[in-house]
Structures are given as C-alpha cells and as structure tokens.
C-alpha cells in the first residue's frame, strides 16, 4: 500500500529534524534549539488562536514563569528534573487562575489584557530580591535526569526536539478527540457551540491553561540551556513574535506552528546579523524586526490569509483535483464538485 503524501511529509520532517543537530555547526545548533523552543510555545498558541479563537499577546509571560520556576527550584538545591517538571505545571496553574476573569473578555480586549499581565509580571520579577531583580538568577545548574547531565548544545537540541514531539502528540490527540470536535465548533461560533452543548467557558480555560503549560515547559528547558534568567530575556516583543509565527504558519495546525517558528526564527537571525553590522545603530535589530513583522503580516493577510501551511495544502489539493483523471463511476461527479468547492 502506497503511503499518503501526509505520511511522507511527516516522515521527511521527522528525519530532517533528527539529522539537523548532527549536520549543523555549534552556533547553528544554538539557533536550532531556540527554534524548537519557539515551536513548543507557538504550537500551544496556535491551538488557542485556531480553535478557541483567543488571541494572547502575553504568551511570553508563561515562558518566563516556566523559566523562573525551573531556575528557582534548582538554585535552591532541589533536583533539576523537579524544576523542569514543575515549570509547565506552575505556568498552567497561573493561567488557570488568571484565565477565569481574563477569558470573559473577547477580541482585542483579551489581547491587551494578556499583554498587561506580561507587563505586570515583568515589573514584579524585576523588583523582587528572591528573583534576582533586574539582574536575574545566574548560575542555573545544568539539567540532570536519571544521572545523565545535559551539558552540550547537541543534548539540549534533542531534549527540545523530544519536548516538541510530546507537545505535537498531545495537540494532535486533543484535536482528534471528542473535546477536539467541541473546540472546532467553538472556533466556528461560540453561540452555535454553546447551543450544541459545548461547555464554552471550560474549554476556553482548558486550552488557555494547556497552551501556557507548553510555554512553561519550553521556558524550563530554556533556563537550563542558557544558564540564567532575567526580565530582559522575556521582552514584550517576544510575545508579538509568537503571534506573528502563528499567523505566518497558520493557526490551528501543528505544521503551521513549525513552519511559522522556522521562518520567523531564521528571519530574526538574519536581521540580527544585519543589524549588528559595523555602522548600524544599536536599535537597528529591534527596528528591523518591527518593520519585518508589519510587512509580513500585511503580505500574509493579503495573499495567504490562512497562513503558509493551510494555503499550501489547499493549493496542492486543488491541483490534485484538477489533475485527477475523469471517471465514469456514479460517485465521481460529486467528488469532483466537492473538490472544487473545498477551501
């Protein structure tokens, strides 16, 4: 039996992801780790935006909570694996706590409310002695699990890849489950979903907490990989980056999150290289990032409103439908009509 194109694409992506750390230089592996961590955060945000229909401009705050949780537990003499395990749990618990009042808001009101949460957390973290203040927590020990110490970039690359694989698996299982069908109905219309018996408020809070947990897990790995955490490591711009990654890749899809994280991370690396060239002002990387974000969003909204992956998938399906041979079977015409009317 010939494998489907989806299976072939998934196998190719997995093979490339596994081989990449072995083929890249040390500096490139560092970028690869950050790319994978961004994909972990964006996968949860993509589910939140694509299914629950909620836009969060403060996702980096949960990334920060995960990083600080892991760093605080480890620097106080506790096992590093405990810090990593607690990072997503604390982030998800915080999201569940603040999500009860926040998720009563909608649209741009919710987006600005989540942005305000990040600003408040950044201010609090920067003023507390037990968090290290503006300097942050330095000297975070390396992660150690079952006697194995993650001491190299290569080891963290595969750790981040394993975390992304786990997050993608959880996301796909949720989407394919009965609650996932409720989420898809919720994404279409909250009123229709509620009238069909979907617990809208519960599902929205659950997805919000789950996406925060994903961000917390990525933040925990980030803290161990970098070796320190500080308020400056989690700027407001980082939350906008995550939203841009979702929009570029395509909300509501795992592959969209991967594509968006890859495109934006590599683009940011290029802009940083350009912005730090001799003769460029100190604010050049930030200015270039904002300019490119705006340009990308305009181009995506105009030409690919569903994002790169859904648009490419739709184009391929329409192309395959046009190239399919004619058939005299009774059900051939309805199939062709359905292909022509599919989005």
TrEMBL record:
Signal peptide boundaries: 1-19
Chief subcellular location: membrane
Subcellular localization, as worded in the UniProt entry: Cell membrane
Protein keywords: Cell membrane, Membrane, Signal, Transmembrane, Transmembrane helix
Keyword Cell membrane: yes
A single MF term (Gene Ontology): branched-chain amino acid transmembrane transporter activity
Transmembrane annotation, as ranges: 29-48, 55-75, 81-103, 110-126, 156-175, 207-230, 242-270, 290-309
One Pfam short name: BPD_transp_2
Disordered: annotated segments: 320-343
Cellular component aspect of the GO annotation: plasma membrane
Membrane topology, as annotated: Multi-pass membrane protein
Name of this protein: Amino acid/amide ABC transporter membrane protein 2, HAAT family
Protein source organism: Thermomonospora echinospora
Lineage: Bacteria, Bacillati, Actinomycetota, Actinomycetes, Streptosporangiales
């Amino acid at each position: 039996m010939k494998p489907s194109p989806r299976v072939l694409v998934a196998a190719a992506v997995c093979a490339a992801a596994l081989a990449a750390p072995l083929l890249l230089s040390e500096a490139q592996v560092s970028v690869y780790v950050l790319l994978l961590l961004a994909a972990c955060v964006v996968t949860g945000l993509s589910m939140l935006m694509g299914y629950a229909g909620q836009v969060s401009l403060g996702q980096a705050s949960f990334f920060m909570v995960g990083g600080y949780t892991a760093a605080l537990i480890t620097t106080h003499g506790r096992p590093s694996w405990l810090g990593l395990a607690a990072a997503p749990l604390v982030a998800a618990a915080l999201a569940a706590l603040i999500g009860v009042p926040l998720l009563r808001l909608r649209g741009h009101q919710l987006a600005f409310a989540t942005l305000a949460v990040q600003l408040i957390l950044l201010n609090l973290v920067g003023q507390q002695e037990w968090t290290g203040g503006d300097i942050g927590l330095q000297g975070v020990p390396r992660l150690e699990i079952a006697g194995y110490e993650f001491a190299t970039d290569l080891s963290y690359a595969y750790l981040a890849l394993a975390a992304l694989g786990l997050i993608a698996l959880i996301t796909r299982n949720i989407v394919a489950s009965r609650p996932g069908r409720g989420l898809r109905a919720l994404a279409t219309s909250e009123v229709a979903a509620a009238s069909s018996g979907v617990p809208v408020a519960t599902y929205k809070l659950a997805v919000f907490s789950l996406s925060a947990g994903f961000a917390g897990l990525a933040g925990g790995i980030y803290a161990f990989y970098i070796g320190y955490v500080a308020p400056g490591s989690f700027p407001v711009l980082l939350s906008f980056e995550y939203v841009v990654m979702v929009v570029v890749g395509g909300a509501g899809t795992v592959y969209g999150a991967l594509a968006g994280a890859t495109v934006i991370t590599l683009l940011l690396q290029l802009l940083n290289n350009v912005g730090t060239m001799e003769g460029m002002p100190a604010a050049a990387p930030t200015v270039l990032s904002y300019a490119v974000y705006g340009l990308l969003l305009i181009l995506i909204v105009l030409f690919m409103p569903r994002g790169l992956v859904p648009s490419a998938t739709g184009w391929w399906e329409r192309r395959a439908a046009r190239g399919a041979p004619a058939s005299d079977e009774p059900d051939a015409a309805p199939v062709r009509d359905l292909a022509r009317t599919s989005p």
